[in-house]
Design a protein that fits this description.
Helix content: 40-55%
Strand order of the largest sheet: 5-4-3-6-7
Structural class: alpha/beta
Radius of gyration: 31 Å
Strand content: 5-15%
Shape: globular
Number of helices: 19
Number of strands: 7
Amino acid sequence: AFPLHAMVAPTDEVQRLREENAVLRAQIAWLKQQLFGPGKSETLDRAQLLLQLGALEKLAAAQRPTETITYERPAGPAPKRTLPAESFAHLPVKETVELVPEPVRQEPELYERIGEERTFEVDIVPPQLFKREIVRPKFRHRPDRHRAPLLSPAPKRLVPGGFASAGLVAWALTAKYCDHLPLYRQEKMLTRWGASISRQNLCDWVGAATAQLEPLVKAMKRELLAGGYVVVDETPIRCNDPDLRDGKTTQGWLWALTRPGGDVVFDWRLSRRHAEAERLLGDYRGLLQSDGYEAYPAFAAAHPGVEWLGCWAHARRYFFEAARERPKTAARVLRLIARLYELEHEWDEAGVDAERAKLREQHFAQPLARLRRLVTALQARVLPKSGLGQACAYLLGHWTPLTAHQRHSHTKLDTNAVENAIRPSKLGAKNWLFIGHPDTGNRAAVLYSLVLSCQRRGHNPHDYLRDVLARLPAMTTSDDLRPLLPAHWQPPATARSELP
């Protein structure tokens, strides 16, 4: 017979096994999402692996009791429903159809009109390509016929000797970088509309436009870095490298710079090494906000004039993802972080700007102190490799840059401004899949910079590109580009009846 103490596991051992069980279940749930979620691996036999994972779960210990968390919050105002008459009030009326009853048409003398009822329907005319004929008359001097004839110079075009107008090129750029239409789809659409324009022509136009627009993006970057507060991030983009023998794509990176309410500037790089951050930021001095990627704190440490700020959204995300393990504990942390955002929202509603640092110092003190005590105690009780363990390590490891916001009034608590700017490029990549050549990645960086900056400023990207591409070919290096930047550009005073 075995002694009783040998048959019962120690309490600490039981608790450790429970925590390890919870961690393994969370890992299995994550693996299922990665393998069977939309757009995930298609190289594995999903059904067979699902059976194996199910068998693995059956070998685990008994199900952990389910904990239900209830949140209460006041309901916001019901969204106002926009009526069709309000949504389409700006559309011009190009056709009016009057429906007269048949008896009235047959005997109009027997009826008198006493009123009417009006409704409408919205119609569309498919896009039409048209030619603009440019005539340059020649003139000869009558008294002195030996003089050379006079002829107006040919208008400078984006593509010299070509047939593409600024409006047509602007449409192609907007279709790809705003509406995420690859050039091969544009080629089919143009053919359907009556013009056979090859994909190669479209590609040449994108290259010519990028060469003209790149100085604008460089000027935008200078203004952005001169502002003293930038938010940075990077996102992977596949690119087709012809030097690779296996024909596979390689990894490139779009590095993004922005600040809340400011322009967005992208920079194309073939790596994510720390040296790329150095080349991206140069001799920048000011506030640098990012996620936890080590390149940015390393840059701040190497440059005394740079202060690194953290992102509360990333810290919160770790606890949100770890809520499967210990929902109540994670919820306590999430509520304390939510309190910081509630205060920020109140100050936004009240229009507080210059005094925000003082308010942060005063009102953040209590929730931050409680948060640090809670997370420190929690870190000592959970496994380091568990979801909660990693969440605690991230929060405490980045405590200094996260709490640095208390010293500044104009910063945001998170990097959502740059992550929202990156999202359109990821959506576009699902359509055009990869960048055609490593050397052409700069095209995407330049055009995404201008398109997204226009959208932030409330400009129609097509109107902006059409106007700027019509003006740039005639400008010289001595001309001031500042009025053409999205932050300073103004639509033409008089609307043009035709595309330029």
